[in-house]
């Protein structure tokens, strides 16, 4: 395999990199914009995504398998064609959703038996099934099928679970290599990222990181964080694990987080992020500004003629006032959701661009301290 | 007053015209895109409206008076500034909504006492109040405050109602003239359209048309149609009334209708249209095509890789397939609504542009017959 990831610059542990994919180059650190069901919630289209600076879209294997089914998406030419997005797409493996959404799940060595959260129907998903679905979806990057244990869990449970996740990863690798060779496969260069697990037990995390690093995957994720543990635990685990992941591969911190979390994690060597937070917050009128979060439903914005965030170049801020968007929420007009989701995703994408600039310019530490101070002022 | 309306060409009774306003020129016949609460339902923004060829946006006095209040919009600089739309806006008078939405209404000579459909609070609206609210909203065109009687109503009731509507129109004219002279008024060139009423009684309609024509207003609407009567009654009334309205002013058929209705009405001399139908249909997956209406929720579109309407240049058709939009509906993704509303409004705006071209080229009759035939083929 040709070298995909290039580490361009380091400042402390923070990494400025570049990741080359068949669907275009990703400048890192990057925030992936979440479109669970092949669409960003809040009536945001793939055209909008380009306008707000999205580099990578993320969709969910579990959700798309249930609806409309990966078979449909395969027949429609894969996710890129289906949702009209030609840049990189990462699909998660379904592992997290099986453990957070599905009902009546039974974990066996072969995989997980569970009931659909939509209609209760029985479904089996194991490493091979997850890879087959993701191959159908034809995403740029497939994630390994893992068990995401909730925090806290007992040491004994986590150890057994991590061992199984390792065996599942080996099966994922074999299966994706097989699928990428099939003539019927849409994306024959689909990449695989492994996922480090181990709860909040640093030593289990480190042992697991060492094990999966040997497998020479396209990238490595840290999973099972932001699932109940404290921020201190999260940062400590990242500090512990990152040194044991390969420096020449991107590192993805799954499902994290707030702008503050992202700055702290970049500072600890993370390259990829995703989180539903900005879109979810936006749908409730909670928007990010350079001076912290505000909620547009607040009565004080009724006559506020300022944009959500002064100086922001997102489609919402270039055209509309806080007063107008507040009215849209009160009037239950869907445009309210769309404008706030656009703004929040733009805020995240712009934050990442600013982080990259800071790393390029060698002033990331100062940038981080200044941002944390600004955001907390009005928090 | 300078001459605002120019009749450019006639084909039979069908009129190709041009209407000059302080917010830009309107090419007629025109379909106004309805944004009841200062936003088009389905997360469509004023930026989107420009992309889909909207010439005139229409908002509702009654709704905006209740939420966010005309006072708020006045303080925000008027509707144009509030919703970031610099082209013409027509506001209806609230008359229709008072009679279709409000509860416990009492009609008196001075106006109507009613309860808000939102919180039940008591409100009074008469001709002066309607004009004051519309002056606050600062729309390009204000509509007269009238009583919209439902069909059928007794001859006696309609006669009394129409007489009152005439007296209300006189009061509207006096009030808007006064308001347009106030230094605090945002749009001092706000225009007033009178509304012809009379149910399905041709003679009452004609007498009323003669009376209001004498008042030299900026335009004339035919109201009280598409409220329960048959299409035959509607077309007959239009045929009866249009000859008694001034040829040098635009004629607006309120709340109508289907693409077929529009062709028939243009053929009878109508210049302005508005209707919630395309946006409402779109939100339910019902979309217009050159071969008639289809519903994207239908299972047969599950793997359909065609756009909603082949050859259509709307933002939805340029980027997305029927299969994708169907999936969005099934997955309850709001983007589904937005794409279908954009398509349907584009379809209407494009239909009007094609009608204008046909009138310019002198082939409107053929155009009309061909369209009616095409649409009915698959209806």
TrEMBL record, chains A, B:
Question: EC number(s) of the enzyme?
Answer: 2.4.2.29
Identify one Pfam family in the record: TGT
Which SUPFAM superfamilies does the entry link to?
Answer: tRNA-guanine transglycosylase
Chain intervals for the UniProt region annotation (RNA binding): 255-261, 279-283
Q: In which pathway does it act?
A: tRNA modification; tRNA-queuosine biosynthesis
Report residues binding Zn(2+): 312, 314, 317, 343
Q: Which cofactor does it need?
A: Zn(2+)
Record's Gene Ontology CC terms?
A: cytosol
What is the cofactor note? Binds 1 zinc ion per subunit.
Residues at the catalytic site: 92, 274
A Gene Ontology molecular function term for this protein is: metal ion binding
- Which residues of this UniProt protein bind substrate? 92-96, 146, 197, 224
Q: How does it assemble?
A: Homodimer. Within each dimer, one monomer is responsible for RNA recognition and catalysis, while the other monomer binds to the replacement base PreQ1.
What protein family is recorded? Belongs to the queuine tRNA-ribosyltransferase family.
Protein's name according to its UniProt entry: Queuine tRNA-ribosyltransferase
Species, as recorded? Clostridium vincentii
């Amino acid at each position: 395999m040709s070298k995909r990831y290039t580490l361009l610059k380091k400042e402390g542990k923070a990494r400025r990199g570049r990741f080359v994919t068949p669907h275009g180059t990703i400048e890192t650190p990057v925030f992936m914009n979440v479109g669970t069901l092949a669409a960003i919630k809040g009536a945001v289209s793939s055209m909008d995504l380009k306008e707000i600076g999205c580099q990578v879209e993320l969709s969910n294997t579990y959700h798309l398998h249930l609806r409309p089914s990966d078979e449909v998406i395969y027949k429609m030419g894969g996710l890129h064609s289906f949702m009209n997005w030609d840049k990189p797409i990462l699909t998660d493996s379904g592992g997290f959703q099986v453990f957070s959404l599905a009902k009546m799940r039974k974990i066996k060595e072969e995989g997980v038996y569970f009931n659909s959260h939509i209609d209760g129907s029985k479904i089996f998903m194991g490493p091979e099934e997850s890879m087959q679905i993701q191959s159908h979806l034809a995403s740029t990057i497939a994630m390994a099928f893992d068990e995401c244990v909730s925090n806290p869990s007992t040491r004994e449970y986590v150890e057994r679970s991590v061992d199984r996740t390792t065996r599942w990863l080996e099966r994922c690798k074999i299966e994706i290599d097989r699928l990428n060779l099939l003539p019927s496969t849409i994306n024959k260069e689909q990449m695989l990222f492994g996922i480090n697990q181990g709860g909040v037990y640093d030593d289990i995390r480190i042992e697991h990181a060492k094990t999966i690093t040997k497998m020479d995957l396209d990238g490595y994720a840290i999973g099972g964080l932001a699932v109940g543990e404290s921020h201190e635990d999260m940062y400590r685990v990242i500090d512990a694990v990152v040194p044991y992941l390969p420096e020449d591969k991107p590192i993805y911190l799954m499902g994290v987080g707030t702008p503050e979390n992202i700055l702290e994690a970049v500072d600890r060597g993370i390259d990829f992020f995703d989180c539903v937070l900005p879109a979810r917050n936006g749908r409730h009128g909670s928007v990010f500004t350079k001076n912290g979060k505000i909620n547009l439903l607040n009565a004080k914005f009724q006559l506020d003629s300022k944009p959500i965030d002064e100086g922001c170049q997102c489609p919402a801020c270039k055209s509309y006032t806080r007063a107008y968007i507040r009215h849209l929420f009160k009037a239950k007009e869907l445009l309210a959701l769309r404008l706030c989701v656009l703004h929040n995703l733009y805020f995240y994408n712009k934050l990442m661009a600013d982080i990259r600039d800071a790393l390029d310019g060698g002033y990331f530490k100062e940038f981080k301290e200044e941002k944390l101070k600004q955001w907390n002022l009005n928090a």
